[in-house]
Amino acid sequence: MDAYRDKQIVVVGAGRSGRSLAEYFLSRGARVTLSDSRPLDQFREADQLQKKGLRLDFGGHTEELFVAADLIAISPGVPLELPSLAAAQRRSVPVLGEIEIASRELSAPLVGITGTNGKSTTTTLIGGILQDWGRKTFVGGNLGTPLIEAVDESGWDWLVVEISSFQLEAIERFRPRYGLLLNLTEDHLDRYPDMDAYMAAKKQLFRNMQTDDVAVLNGDDPLVVQLTSDLHCRKVYFSSSTVPAEGMGLEGGEIVWKMGGEEIRFPVSQLRLKGLHNLENVMAALIPPLLEGCPAEEAWRSVCAFSGLDHRMVLVRELNGVCWYNDSKGTNVGSVVKSLAGLNPPVTLIAGGKDKGGDYSPLIEMIREKVCRLILIGEAADRIEGALGGLTETLRAATLEEAVRLAHRLTPSGGSVLLSPGCSSFDMFRSYVERGEVFVRAVMELPAKEEG
Fold first, then answer.
1. Cβ pair 101, 151 in contact under 8 A
2. Active-site residue among 117, 142, 278, 281?
3. I need a surface site. Which of 60, 120, 261, 429 has the fewest CB within 10 A?
4. pLDDT in tens, 291-313
5. Cβ neighbours around 220 below 10 Å, total
6. Exposure of 379 by Cβ count < 10 A (0-12 exposed, 13-18 middle, 19+ buried)?
7. Does residue 119 carry a catalytic annotation?
8. What is the rounded distance in angstroms from the CA atom of residue 264 to the CA atom of residue 282?
9. Which SS3 state, helix, strand or coil, does residue 282 take?
């Protein structure tokens, strides 16, 4: 408890992780400054935290505070290249991420899940299996609840944590018992100079894992296989194209688990989750609990009960023969490809938002095959139209609500409308959650029949 007493600590980023870090350090007697580039009037909790003794550095990052700190704790998404951070690092001030700080205080074994797509679903599935098995399990990280919030509660059996590439940049000793790398496609190239840099950040998940730890890997993804070829920990693969000699595979409508001479088969038809990408998520999620001795029938019962996450391919409404899907969590191109793959044409696709610098060309085949109409919103509209606009009818909308009204007017009965932006939400919304809520509200307000 006394490790941080009277230390000068700067917490960077005033989102949920940053506020949780600030409260954590305050409770341990540190002198804490919360630093954020946004103006103070955008921070509703300012008065409440100031009353607890927190100092605020808003509207920029004051270099003098950073270089004088004993420790700098960064929230996910804060770039290490920030000038004030770089200046502090030149003075040998430690800079650590929230998951690193939290993991040093936690003794329970940890499951860390990363990858470009499927992290949240897989994290939720693993957490659910372990909880249904009677294990006290924390589920969070990049998914929602910061890991630091687990520290003040005792008795955890497992910690199941979704981890972004940003979070992995600022670890030192962080070591999961199981590290899952689900897939790798272009993402966050507004943050990383190239794909190699993005992949290197993902590989940080495994840097401290030892020979008795387990890497759970997508055997069908050549980038995953290449990136993890030199790992020293145990590797267990899942695959939707074959059945590994030891691992998890797909064969004739069944998920097949082979390990230690045992073979167990699970019928895919019993799952509520649909789509090949979700089968991959289920296979990945089953591996750690099964290796830990969870009875196969209990693990399978748990995954069969799960119907999916909010804002991830959720059927919002069927109206006049048109199905409306909310996939606001589809924030990169690979995610949009997988979502379109599960729909039949004709699809009206609503896409756009804050551009992440990726390549939109992987969507070309799906646009040609399935999308009869593309409605673009947000800052990325010009880039997306340049890459894809010649493939189908392409329209612009100033707001998401306008895009919904356009789609309602133009989509024929028997078709689908899919909000799958392929971009982050931060040009128009606070989060993908808010974007999804706006979409759902706009869809639910549509009249059942056209007037006139």
1. no
2. 142
3. 261
4. 999 999 999 999 999 987 777 78
5. 17
6. middle
7. yes
8. 15
9. helix
Contacts of 98 (CB under 8 A, 6+ apart): 17, 20, 21, 73, 74, 75, 76, 146, 147, 148, 167
Query: What is the residue-wise DSSP string for 107-118?
Result: -S-EEEEESSSS
Q: What are phi and psi of 289, to 5 degrees?
A: -60, -40
Reported as a single tens digit per residue, the pLDDT across 315-374 is 899 999 999 999 998 888 988 998 898 888 999 999 999 998 888 999 999 999 999 999
Residue 402 has, within 13 A of its CA and on its CB side, a CA count of 9
Report phi then psi at 314, rounded to 5.
-95, 130
Q: Could you tell me how far CA 249 lies from the centroid of its own chain?
A: 24
**Nearest CA to 151 among 189, 193, 98?**
98
Catalytic residue among 61, 117, 119, 183: 119
Q: Indicate if 277 belongs to the active site.
A: no
Specify which residues 348 forms β-bridges with: 373, 417
Q: Judge whether 435 and 400 are in contact, CB under 8 Å.
A: yes
Write down the residue that tokens 């070309």 correspond to. 364
**C-alpha–C-alpha distance, residues 75 and 11, integer Å:** 8
Cis check: omega of the bond before 421, within 30 degrees of 0: no
Beta strands in 165-288 (DSSP E): 178-181, 214-218, 234-238, 247-251, 254-259, 262-267
Element (H, E) at 19: helix 16-27
HSE toward the beta carbon, residue 384, CA cutoff 13 A:
30
Backbone angles phi, psi at 439, to 5 degrees: -60, -50
Catalytic, out of 61, 117, 183, 188: 188
Residue 380 and residue 190: Cα distance in Å, rounded?
12
What single letter denotes the amino acid at residue 210?
A: Q
**Radius of gyration (Cα) for the chain, nearest Å?**
23
Give the number of other Cβ atoms within 10 Å of residue 269's Cβ: 7
**Whether 408 is catalytic:** no
Alpha-carbon distance of 111 to 113, in angstroms, equals 7
